[in-house]
Prior knowledge:
Chain A has helices at about 5-10, 10-30, 35-65, 90-110, 110-115, 125-140, 145-160, 170-200, 205-220, 225-240, 250-260, 260-285, 290-310, 320-340, 345-370, 385-390, 390-405, 410-425, 430-455, 470-485, 495-515, 525-530; strands spanning about 70, 85-90, 370, 375, 465. Chain A is an all-alpha fold. Chain A has a three-stranded antiparallel beta sheet with strand order 4-3-5. A two-stranded antiparallel sheet of chain A has the order 1-2. The longest helix of chain B has about 40 residues, at about 520-564. The N and C termini of chain B lie far apart (about 60 Å).
Amino acid sequence: MDSISADLGVALPEIALAIGGMALLMLGVFRAKRDDEPSQTAAAQLILYLATALLLAVGVLVALDGASAGAFDCAAGKDGGRACLFVDDTFSRFAKVLILFASAIMLILGVDYMRRHQMMQFEYPVLIVFAALGMCMMVSANDLMSLYMGLELQSLSLYVIAAFRRDSLRSTEAGLKYFVLGALSSGLLLYGASLIYGFTGSTRFDEIATAVVKLLEAKEETAAPIGLLFGLVFLASGLAFKISAAPFHMWTPDVYEGAPAPVTAFFATAPKVAALALFGRTMMGPFQDMAAQWSQVIAALAVASMFLGAFAGIGQTNIKRLMAYSSIGHMGFALVPLAAGTEAGVSAMLVYLVIYLATNVGVFAFILMMTRDGAQSARLADLDGLARTSPGAAAGLALLLFSLAGIPPLWGFMAKFAAFSAAVDAGLAWLAVAAVVSSVISAYYYLNIIRRMYFAEPAANPLQLGGGVLHRATFGVVALAMILAVAPFQPFNGFGAEEAASRAAKSLTEHRATAAPAKPAPTKEAALGAPAAPLGL
Amino acid sequence: MDGLDYRWLTFLTFLPLVGAGLTLLFSERNESDQLQIKRFALGVTVITFLTSLILLAYFDPSKEGYQFVEESKWVAGLTYKLGVDGLSFPFVLLTTFLTPLVILASWSVTSRVKEYMIAFLALETLMIGVFVSLDIVLFYLFFEGGLIPMFLIIGVWGGKDRVYASFKFFLYTLLGSVLMLVAMLWMISTVGDSAWFKTFVDAYKAANPDATLLPVASDITVLTEYASAAHKDPATGQSFIGFDPRSFSFLGIYLPAGVQSLLWLAFFASFAVKMPMWPVHTWLPDAHVQAPTAGSMVLAAILLKMGGYGLLRFSLPMFPQASADFANFVFVLSVVAIIYTSLVALAQEDMKKLIAYSSVAHMGYVTLGIFAGNQQGIDGAVFQMISHGFISAGLFMLVGVIYERAHTREISAFGGLAERMPIYAALLMLFAMANVGLPGTSGFVGEILALMGAFQASHWVAFAATSGVILSAAYMLTLYRRVALGEMTNKALETINDMTAREKLITAPLAAGAIILGVYPSLATDMFGPTTARLVAGVERAEAEAKKADAALEKRSVELVSTK
């Protein structure tokens, strides 16, 4: 793995995105004449379609790709080319497929909105492509430096598109808020990274893992040096900010509400996958042997997020803001299996992500269709009596919302089932209890939307459902998938998400295993066996 | 399986759902469209009932284990496994029998008929699914899934306070059930990791070398077997039976059966809310009063029975030690439920509320019988549930009949109905007496069996519970006197008409059921008797083994102390 061409082969999807993104940028700059509004819009639209095609094409490329490999500076690794700045394994490919398809769908679904609000500018699709590139980089990062590089590329693109509606006060406020808090979190993350570097002597994940094992052995106890712990906590805080886990969630509601609807839809999907996958890789990769320590941190983040998401969502009147709290809560649920610190936990987290992503695509496809008096609407009150005016849409949205609430027999229940059983398996029954209680609380606000749609009378000028065939098709297919996913025969049966996720999780831990042989994990019996503390209480 | 090996239970379970899907194709523009939809829904439920009768013909109550079993691979290491035994099959029949009547009772619904019928058909699938599931998570899926259509039925077609009632119903029962989910996960995880399970799978592989589906830990039959097998703690070498029953203290609370107590409590939380038991019954009167007539019928006749079924399917066979330990606790709750809610029923002015409270009291006999843990008690509990299915459905139907005419359920608004509505008065008398438990009606058989079982367990409990029979006579007779007898004081009722042919058609099978089961109870007991006998034998065996193990443990600790 020392030839440059082999390296380029491994990073082909990212390279294609980078070159494609820059080519689209050039195209935009040269095609759109400054003073010609229609030609600008036409060019922007063309670029948007091209960007979507690019994302989809790269997504297919990644999905079809073969074996695991590493790239860039691999010679430094001592164990057969595994120690690379950049890795391309099943885990990263799993996340990349989700990221690229979600980005493409959200990009194309935003066309109508962008056109209606005179926001059809070529920078938007180009920025999404760069954000997607950053996210792909993140999930493939195997080094603190490449991690930071991907993270910043993604973040900077997102700061700009959050404020994309320049003439709207809320949008610019959202962008600024996101930027200031995001910069702070990047600072935290960098500080944590430097501490980790200081205590382990490396920025490379596998070398950190080896160093951690040595440090733990040297101290002859399970506690790591306090400085390394601090570094880890700072790193986790920075990552928690990116997935908007409480208490680092403050930006989320404002940004979701303030940003243009297609941007919110994008925020709710692809970046969450990227950041959570990165979270999983960082925790399970270099710091696997410190699982006993970080597991508590993750559990605390999870509990805080779940309950904050559940309680704070109750009083909301804006559906975008509500979805912000919903996503905070869902990130908490997704962290529950990660707190287990096992391969099964990572697999459950990935399953959770797939289902979360699918459901959110459906809900945001609906939100993008919401129009009233010709303008985009996000008021929950506008949903009053929707079951009378458009019964099909109401039924579809009800399915999606019940699924978000995790009510069986919908797909969302299978997500929660996977997540909680991973936690219970690892002896974290108390965390599962907290999670189910918070899921009941959050069910209240999902039910509230259903109440508006089904129990209330329609207003004098009811909500119109705009959007084209694409919106309707996406919304309909996703809503149907919520029921069909639990059907016990092919091709349903969870749509194979389970198997793919477990392969991905396996590649993550295998990858680690070659880097530093893990100490035998404490057996479940040892964790649970003592009669004094069963159920992991 | 006697020519019935081709997924009949799947067919039976999902037929109503397919019907719901086809209902989507109808348009609902005018009254004749609505009638079409109603007829279609009725047809689907009747076919479902006929299918269940075919199964009945092939069902052999004396056969051990589950029948019509079918299995497929499912997500997340679970299995899609269906099957019925003598315990679940009566409830399947009850569901398929009642649903067509419920659809008929909805003939007067005029708003959003299509959605209404879809909700009821989907609900039927979910209800049947609860009783035929042989995978614990599949059971949970159906058990909780029923909340969705019921939430919509109460919320959309309910009375004045329907929003409050539907939210209370949904969140209350959901909160009760999620703890059960965690307990289920814990059980699956424990059983799946146990040495016992590995031997079990190996034995299965040896017996069926070409099996494509291996047993999974979420299979109810596997869990039940685990619950009666001996296990060894790998850490301490102690041996125990079933789900770890070794006692310990947690936060100063002594748990006599250890982890098993916690699991039992988690399951009990769910089933007690569903039953409902005092003091977690408060959602029921609200839900009943606000629900439309058909909704109340389904709720009282079938949904409440899921709690009792769950106790019999899970709590008793899987956690026998904890069940024995908590029996007195349940007795107290049941007796309070019987006496207190009967008194509350006595004070009600709303007919539906009265019947709702009476349902809570009658479910008290069910829990009493179940935790008496003997043959009579459990037979009585199952019989009481089936009988209550007929009686409560009939009573709610009758309330619906006069509500449609007078648009009120206030007892004081009626009086002297017997004059204008003789048939109605006669039927009301019949159901009121059946509810009281008059000999010759099904209510009597259930109550007397449950009380006999309770008497063997504790004389005082049986004594206190029997007073509930007197109280139920008090409130039912008062209701009857105030509604059907006396002077007709309300001028608006002077033109009231007796029951229509449709209403009679709905009530007659229910009345017939209540009488036939009362006169010839073996019709039902023969079906579930062998299964409950095995259940009781299993519980007794487990208790005896637990006692033996406890004694051995005690002996060992005494020896340890004396050697020291």
